[in-house]
Write a structure and sequence with these properties.
The chain has 168 residues and is an alpha+beta fold. It has one domain (3-166). It is built from five helices and eleven strands, in the order βββααβαββββαββαβ.
Length: 168
């Protein structure tokens, strides 16, 4: 089947059934994200928290990432930079004009926000992150052409997260 372009500018190759992101650093970024999501699910299950992830576009857009309302974000560099990069807006390609609310600003069923990497996971109440953003007014940066985010220092994240899983 031919490649199609969704209304938000996302390119999808229907024969692969997964989105492609022309501005991504890696052509495996979508698959990398799915594998990290599976890692988080496995880690949480070891602690008695079982997630039912939703994988179809329809349910991801209309409900959220999973039935429990957990948003999962991979932050590969957080251990090195000692800060979390909290996403607030995205676009599928750098040449798309407008930004779409995402991460903590996306209106879906999420109420918990899990962010980290294979070494450490932070679990936040989404409303705490929104309150932090609104009260502290950290600078919103766009270090990549398709994502806007702000930073939370590690020391603040460790103190204010509902739970921290140190995995190494």
């Amino acid at each position: 089947m031919p490649e199609t372009v969704a209304q938000d500018g996302r390119h999808t190759d229907m024969s692969l059934a997964e989105p492609t992101y022309p501005d991504a650093k890696s052509n495996t970024s979508f698959q990398d994200g799915l594998e990290f999501q599976d890692f988080v699910c496995e880690t949480l299950a070891k602690h008695g928290i079982v997630l039912q992830n939703l994988s179809s576009k329809k349910y991801q857009y209309n409900v959220g990432e999973n039935l429990q309302g957990f948003e999962i974000k991979q932050d590969n560099h957080c251990s090195r930079t000692k800060r979390l990069s909290i996403e607030v807006a995205e676009k599928s390609q750098s040449n798309v004009r407008g930004w779409t609310p995402s991460g903590i600003c996306r209106e879906d069923n999420s109420w918990l926000y899990i962010q980290g990497n294979y070494d450490i996971l932070f679990v936040f109440a989404k409303n705490w992150l929104l309150r932090y953003w609104n009260e502290k007014k950290p600078e919103v940066v766009s270090n990549r052409p398709t994502i806007k985010s702000f930073y939370v220092p590690f020391d603040t994240a460790i103190k204010c997260a509902a739970k921290v899983f140190t995995l190494t």
